[in-house]
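Worked problem 6 (solution included).
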Amino acid sequence: MSLEPIRCPACHSTRQSEPLERYRQWSLYECLECGVQHFWPAKNPGADWYQENEMYAARDLMVVDWLGWYHRAALDNMPVRSGSVIDVGCGNGAFVAAAAERGYEAWGIDFSSKAIEAGRRHFRLQNLYAMRIEDFTTQFGDRRFDVVTAFEVLEHMDDASAFVLELSKVLKPGGHLIVSVPNRERRPWLLNEGDLPPHHFTRWNVPAIHGFLARHEFTRSKVIVCPTRITLKAFILYRIHLGLVIRLTRRAQADHPGAIQRTAMLARARTLTILKDRLADLAAVVLAPVLAPFVRGPMLVAIAQRAEVTNTAAQDD
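Solution. The predicted structure is:
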């Protein structure tokens, strides 16, 4: 019986390096064709797994509703000043709400129904849907957007190439794609369970993301690297563990608490999370000038434009 060849999820090439590292049943390879590093075998665990995973409970229960650095970087560098935006893998819809506040027609989809329910309830957004990108193109047909965003999603995909092709289907010709991914060349190197399978299957750097977008007919790509202060803040947050927040979130998820008790638990978790964030931010501001030479950002935001379609039959917009 022949074994399935090791195939890059970004370009589908079978030209791979020797294993770089191993984690449980997965091995990490680097594609010799495109430079993306990836774990093999790769299989996304699906919506049910994410909804039951404690790592995403705070998001789904709206413990906090602030924007990530990559959200703010995208908003500050939006390639159009108005128009339509869809956030794929939107979580609880925090970016969708922020884009709507700036005047964009903002939509969001995520395959976690819990996250979508939380976003609709908290932000009172109508255009949030619990579905995959493949389901969106089926249900909404020819609906196209000026900007498509996918924050911290690409590294979760077991077929990154197929995923970006689906994103292209909902993007207008000449429209813009914005994606964020962890930076595999970050310093200090922080590695936790969330960076490993079955959470993440690919690892990216600046050349890899540029090349990936170019191969999928995106042009004029630029990559923004997370600044020093945010890098140090992420490191401090990673080192400070608030087990009480996790315990409160677990108890709030259980069926037995009443509505008042549940609200109180989430309020305490929110207060502790905000306190931790502010302390980390203050420490990062103080340390950034000293440690800047030794730090490289943990996140990348890439912005690129879809090539114009020359075939008039394809001008569906």
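Discussion: Residues 231-294 form one domain.
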